[in-house]
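User: Please predict the structure of the protein below. I'd like the answer in C-alpha cell form so I can feed it into my own downstream comparison script.

Assistant: Understood. Taking the following sequence of 814 residues as input:
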Amino acid sequence: MGGCCPPMDLFRSEPMQLVQIIIPIECAHLTVSYLGDLGLLQFKDLNSEKSPFQRTYATQIKRCGEMARKLRFFNDQMIKAGLPPTKSARQVDLNVDDLEVKLGELEAELIEINANGEKLQRSYNELIEYKFVLQKAGEFFHSAESSARLQQREVESRQTGDDALDTPLLVDQESSTDPSKQVKLGFLTGLVPRGKSLAFERILFRATRGNVFLRQAVVEEPVTDPVSGEKIEKNVFAVFYSGERAKNKILKICDAFGANRYPFTEDLGKQAQTINEVTAKLSELKTTIDIGLLHRGRLLETIGEHYEQWNHLVRKEKAIHHTLNMLSLDVTKKCLVAEGWSPIFASKQIQEALQRAAFDSNSQVGAIFQVLHTKEAPPTYFRTNKFTSSFQEIVDAYGVAKYQEANPAVYTIITFPFLFAVMFGDWGHGLCLLLGTLYLIVRERKLSSQKLGDIMEMAFGGRYVILLMSIFSIYTGLIYNEFFSVPFELFGRSAYACRDLSCRDATTAGLIKVRPTYPFGLDPVWHGSRSELPFLNSLKMKMSILLGVVQMNLGIVLSYFNAKFFQNGLNIWFQFIPQLIFLNSLFGYLSVLIVMKWWTGSKVDLYHVMIYMFLSPTDELGENQLFSGQKTLQLVLLGLALVSVPWMLLPKPFLMKKQHEARHQGQSYALLENTEESLQVNSNHDPHGHEEFEFSEVFVHQLIHTIEFVLGAVSNTASYLRLWALSLAHSELSSVFYDKVLLMAWGFNNWIILIVGIIVFVCATVGVLLLMETLSAFLHALRLHWVEFQNKFYEGDGYKFYPFSFVLHDDEDE
C-alpha cells in the first residue's frame, strides 16, 4: 500500500470509520471506478428494500451480463479450436458502448461462420458416405452381373450339347415365358452403423417375411456421421425388394436404425461418371472448408488477443454498476449518496480519488466526503501479507475478531507450529516436510497462476504455515534425538557407558555416568533401553502440562489487555484477577512442583501431592514434601482457589445492575423532541443500545461463564496431554516401521527382500507418518488453539471487512 500507510499492526484491527460520500451523477461512474482501484472502501447497501430489477442501473447490469455471455461463447470456441487467450502487449482504449457493438458483430460473424462450416462439413461427410456406397454397391452389381453371365454361358452350352435328354424341361418353359410377366425388383442402398447391422438384417427379414435380399460390405475405416458428427464404423448395404409395400417398410426401418440412404444407378457408365463427379465435389468442398477454418482461426486469434482486456473491462463495468445500485439516489436525482466503512488511514487516499474522478469527468461540482458518527459495530480489518494471511485464516475459521479485540493470530504464528512440532518431533520427518514446502515456495509464482487440485490448493495456501511447522519439527526432533526413530550423537558422546561387557544388550542395567551431561536434547543411550518408555512418558507428560499452563495463562493475560483497551474495569477485577488466581493456585502450583522436582532430582509423587491437597489438606506430606512450608502454602492456594469462584460469580452482575441504574437515572422525564428528529435519531442508533437490562439473564450468563471456566481449567489442562499422547504415538509408529520393516528386511541378506522392504518403509513413512500423522497433529494443534487458548479471551463475533476492489473481484471470478 506504499509509504502512505502506517506500519502493519496485527495485534488489533485497523481503526475504522463510517463515511458518507455525496457524488454528482455525472462523475459517479468514474468515482466508483477509482474507488474500486483503491480497494479501501466497503459500501453499504442503501437500497436493500428494492429488488434487483427495481434498482437504477438494472439495465446496464443486464447489458454487461449479455456481453459476459458473448465472451464466454468466444472462450468456449477458442478452447474447442485449441487457441487459448493470449495477453496482448498493446492495449486498445474502448468504451463499453463500442465494445458492445463490436462483440455483437463478432458473435454474429462467428455464428455465421460456424453455421456455414457445419453445413459444408455435413455435405462433405454425406459425399464421403455416398462415395463408399458407389464403390461397395458397384462391387455388388459387378459381381452379380459376372455371375449371371457365367450362368447364361452354362445354360447355352447345355442347350447346344448332344445329349438332349439331359436338358431340363423348365429351360424351355423359362425361355418361352412372356417378358411382361417377369417381376421387377427394386433396391435401396446406404450405410448402417456396424453395431446395429445384425439387428437391422434381422428386423428386415421379419418385417418382410423373408421377401428381401440383403447384401452388406464392411467399410474399412471409421466414417464421420453427417448427423451426429461422430466417427462411427459402418457397413454399406443393398436391399432388394419387390413391391411398394415392402419399400415403405424398409424406409421406416432405415430411419429407425439411423441408416443413411443414397441413390444408386445400375448403369455402369453412369456409376463411373457419378464417382468422378463426387470426387470433384469432395475436392472443392475440402478446399472451401479449409479456407473457412483458416478464416475462423484468424478471427478467433484476433478475439484471443483482446479477450483478457475485454473480459476485464466487462467484469469491471458489471462490478461498478452493482456498486452504483447500492447507492441512494438524491431527491433531485442529480446526486448519489454512498455510505461505507473505510480504515481511518485511507481518508486521504479516498479524497484524492474523489478529486481525480471529478477532474477527469469535467464535473463542475466535486464529491463531498464526510465522516458519520454511529454506534454500529465496524467491520474487522487486518492488513496481512502472504506470510501472515494463512495464520489469520486459521483464526478466522473459528470466528472473525470483534472490532479491535486482541488478535490471537499474532501468537498463533509461533505457538501453532510449535505445538504441532511437539506432537510431530522427528527431525528426519521434519526435513521431508521442509523440502516439500521449499519446493512450493520456490515455485510459488508459477504455481499461483495454475489451477491446482483441492488438496494441493490447501497445501499451497498454507505453505508458510507448513514451513514453520517443519522447522519447529526439526528443532523438537533434535531435542527428542529422533531421525526416523534412530538416535544420533550429534552434539557429543553419550554421558553413559557400560560398566562391563554384560550391559551390551541396550539396557540401563550396568550403565554408569562417565562424561558430562549430553549438551542438547535427549541422551541417545535412552533409546532402546528398558526404561525408555517410562522415562519418555514422564518427561513428555510433564512437559505437556507446563506448555498448557503457560498458554492458558497467556490467554488470561490477553483478556486483561482486552478489558483495559475497552475500559471495562469490571472484567479486570472480577474476571481477569480471579481467573488468574484460580488457574495458578492449582495448575500453576503443579507446574512449579514439576520444575522443582526436575531441578532437585527428588522422587516425590506429584499425583499423591495434588490428590491429597484436596482430600486431606491438613495432613502432613511426609516423604512427599519438596520444600519447607509446603503444607501452609497449599492451604493458602486452596483457599484462594475457593474464594476466586464466588469472586467471579457474584459481584459482577450486581455491579452491572448498579451501573445501568446510574446511567439511566433521571431519563424517565426527558424533554419531548420533535417527532421527525426523534425518529431520525432512533434509526441511527444501534438497536442493542435500547435493550432493557435483565438482571436474571446477566446472572445466569455469569453463572454459566464461571462454571465453564472452573470445569474448563481442569479439562483444558488435561486436554494438553494430547501433546504427550500424539508424540508417543508418532515415535512408536516410526520405531515400528524402522525395526519391523527396514531392519527385518536387512536381516534376510537378500537384495530382493531388501528392496521390497525399503519400498514398504518409504510408502509407510510417507503415507502414515508424513500425511496422516501430519494431518492428525495439525487438527489437534488447531483444537488446542481454538478451544483451550482462545476461549480465555477471544469473542470472535465480528464481521470481516470486504472492500470494493477490482483485484478481489478478479480473484473470486477465477
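That's the full C-alpha cell string. The radius of gyration is 44 Å.
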